């Protein structure tokens, strides 16, 4: 029983991390139709700069962690907004060019990160409580999993509230339905779309800082490795569905944890097989819109 509880809760924690990355992907594609393969770069640079700030403040304190999370989110938002403004804005409805540009940016950014921070992982120090465990039904759960779950839930609620109850959220949803009509009303929908990229980048940058807590280090490739699972989550949940991404994040992570424990470390294979099954049986994903 304790093993099942451990795998479930740690799966929820890993799923929360996947969601922080996949939420930006799902939001950007669902509202703007852009497949952004450079999304992992927003995560990585947010993690690196966030921990650079934390290291200079008071490494290992809660204040340093809060500063790292805030910095990671801000940096991720700025880089994402700049990417949309300088690169993506001219490529809407040109999907092949979008893929080529974002893949190229992702590859170039990894080389840049390695040139600045080196190829070896940079190990991080977090508050001591996050490195400890708490007992639930006989299972010793790492405390950092609880933090991941709480932050992911807050991000999900914040994005939903923003889209439903703010002026810019209304503009974004209206611009998706009929961009020409919104523009004719004198509203600059391009600014709203840049904001969508910024929100996705902020979630990724925040996720980068939390990923470094989960793994204990940050490296130039941490964003790329998480991006793979984020795309799987986005496809299984349904392209453009934020709720689908949240559900799929948990399902994928829990499946991965159970397969790794009971099937000899075959978690990644199980996830890929689940993706294949969804593509064959329900191509639009769990909550994706019908074609």
TrEMBL record:
The keyword Cell membrane applies. One of its GO terms (molecular function) is transmembrane transporter activity. PANTHER family: ABC TRANSPORTER ATP-BINDING PROTEIN, BRANCHED-CHAIN AMINO ACID TRANSPORT SYSTEM PERMEASE PROTEIN LIVH. This is Branched-chain amino acid ABC transporter permease. Signal peptide: none annotated. GO terms for cellular component: plasma membrane. It is a multi-pass membrane protein. It comes from the Bacteria. It comes from Cryobacterium luteum. GO terms for biological process: amino acid transport. It is found in: Cell membrane. Keywords: Amino-acid transport, Cell membrane, Membrane, Transmembrane, Transmembrane helix, Transport.
């Amino acid at each position: 029983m304790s093993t099942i509880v451990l795998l479930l809760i740690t799966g929820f924690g890993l799923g929360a991390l996947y969601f922080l990355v996949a939420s930006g992907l799902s939001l950007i594609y669902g509202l703007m139709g852009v497949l952004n393969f450079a999304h992992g770069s927003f995560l990585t640079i947010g993690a690196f700069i966030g921990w650079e700030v934390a290291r200079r403040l008071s490494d290992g304190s809660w204040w340093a962690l809060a500063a790292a999370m805030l910095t990671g989110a801000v940096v991720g938002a700025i880089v994402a907004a700049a990417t949309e403004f300088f690169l993506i804005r001219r490529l809407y409805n040109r999907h092949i060019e979008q893929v080529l540009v974002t893949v190229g940016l992702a590859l170039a950014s990894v080389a840049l990160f390695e040139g600045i921070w080196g190829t070896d992982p940079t190990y991080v120090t977090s508050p001591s409580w996050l490195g400890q465990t708490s007992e639930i039904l006989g299972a010793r759960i790492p405390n950092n999993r609880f933090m991941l779950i709480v932050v992911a839930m807050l991000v999900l609620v914040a994005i939903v509230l923003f889209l439903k109850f703010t002026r810019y959220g209304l503009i974004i949803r209206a611009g998706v339905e009929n961009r020409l009509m919104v523009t004719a009303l004198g509203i600059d929908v391009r600014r709203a779309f840049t904001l969508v990229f910024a929100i996705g980048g902020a979630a990724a940058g925040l996720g980068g800082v939390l990923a470094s807590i989960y793994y204990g280090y940050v490296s130039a490739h941490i964003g790329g490795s998480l991006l793979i699972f984020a795309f799987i989550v986005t496809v299984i949940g349904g392209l453009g569905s934020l709720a689908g991404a949240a559900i799929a994040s948990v399902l994928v992570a829990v499946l991965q944890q159970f397969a790794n424990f009971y099937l000899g470390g075959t978690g990644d294979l199980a996830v890929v097989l689940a993706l294949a099954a969804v593509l064959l049986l329900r191509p639009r994903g769990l909550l994706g819109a019908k074609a």
